[in-house]
Amino acid sequence: MAERERRLTPPYGGVFVARKRVMSADDLRRAVWRMAHEIVERNQGLGDVALIGLQTGGVPLAEHLAEALEKIEGIDVPVGSLDVAFYRDDIGLRPVLPEAVTDIPFDVDNRVIVLVDDVLFTGRTIRAALNALNDYGRPRAVQLAVMVDRGHRELPIRPDYVGKNLPTRRDEVVNVTSDGVDLGEMVK
Amino acid sequence: MKHLLSIADLGRDGIEEIHRLTASFLEVNRRPIPKVPALRGRTVCSLFFEDSTRTRLSFETAAKRLSADTLSFAVGSSSVNKGESVRDTVETVEAMGVDAFVVRHRSAGVPWQVARWTDAHVINAGDGWHEHPTQALLDTYTALERLGSLDGRRITIVGDVKHSRVARSNVLAFAALGAEVTLVAPPTLLPPSLVGWPVTVGDDLDAELSKSDIVYLLRLQRERMNEALLPSLREYTAGYGLTARRAGLLGPEAIIMHPGPMNRGVEIAAEVAELPSAVVVDQVRNGVAVRMAVLFLMLGSGSDLVASEPNHVEISPPPLGAFHAHIRGERQPKGEVDAEGVLGG
Q1: pTM for this one?
Q2: What secondary structure letter does DSSP report for B219?
Q3: Chain B residue with minimal CA distance to A109?
Q4: Could you give all domains of chain B from N- to C-terminal order, each with its CATH number?
Q5: Interface contact A97-B308, CB threshold 8 A
Q6: CATH 3.90.76.10: does it fit domain A2-17+24-172?
Q7: Residue B215: in which H helix or E strand, if any?
Q8: pLDDT tens, B238-273?
Q9: For residues B151 and B96, what is the distance between their CA atoms, to the nearest angstrom?
Q10: ipTM for the complex?
């Protein structure tokens, strides 16, 4: 999500140029494995737990977490995806279009929902996701898992599970793919 | 997107963009709380100079589900009855702070005029016999939902094409998406000229039905009887109504569409309207989501904030009846056309 925001933010467009690889594919796999263990430990099992990935970067990460959870506990955790475009607070300030149709194929009432995103930056996407989740029901608890926490929060939001804490400059861009995590800039 | 006046302004890409957004809004409409805050603080005014139930309600539902405020204007209870002009009405309402007008008028071209008088966005919700673009968007969406793709599909539009804005917009929309359009109508209810229309005309409904993927029935406006365009309702039904026998000629995958309100027993038999292949209810349901998509694209998506897109869309001149010239201009190939009308170079 963070990458998409950057891509669409003025001065519009540009190409991501990586400067430094900060996590390899193996690092990603190990981080997912550790975060999955933390989710199990924190919730004393997976009884009511469901994962919701945020479009678009959080969706593959949520699926990887679900695979790891299945290996650890032998339980298929429900996985959904959420697009927060209609809940953003910057509508009218920058282009906002949904990337994909939201798909939450389970009842969120009384569940522990783990929101999953690739990069946590200002926290505004998570704020929008919390509002969106409200329209689907009333979860017992909402937790947040992110692969990279890059700082620069603008709202009182903090993650429960973090792959890597990465100090960044505000104008840098963090790009998460299945090959790894890169730090770089958008170049016109 | 500054205005939505004609389907011709959208092209295939524009139609598909709106359809993509429509899928997102259908999901919103299935939620326990079918409302999103996307257009909070925006105001949408429906300016209906002609009677309408479903289109007006559909637009107002769409605006409310996006959290926009809605103003409603019905000519019967307004100052138009005191002689206020359309222009003064628009300017008065705009001064109250309106972001978008949804305009319906019995004369073709009025939404184009309104777009010149106001800085707000304008959506054509039906102008005379000319266009009804959101109807065509919801119809093509509904057909795609059932058929997957419209490329090479055959749609037969049956009935009063001459007086139908629904037919004009749908001909453009279905053709833009690759469908082959056939018109079947009594000669008195066909437009005087079909030059430039991407259609063929069939005269035998039974023969057309057996090869159609979609049969689209237009409402027969009963007032046409008084104009001596039809001998009798019964004769119309015998020649052009979708009776149970005719519905049996359709293929197993074929769908039956109608823009509503239906005259059961005239253009469509009562029991045919209840068949699983009749998607009339789907059309109404998709109508709300399509109109949400159009409103969001105009007022919320910030698509006009992208530098690569022009901030101001050129307004084409009001068509005022020159519909065939309008679409001919739209469809004319870019290369040189020689005297025989053959594309050269």
Answers
A1: 0.87
A2: P
A3: B32
A4: 3-132+286-305 (3.40.50.1370), 133-283 (3.40.50.1370)
A5: no
A6: no
A7: strand B214-217
A8: 999 999 999 999 999 999 999 989 999 999 999 999
A9: 45
A10: 0.85
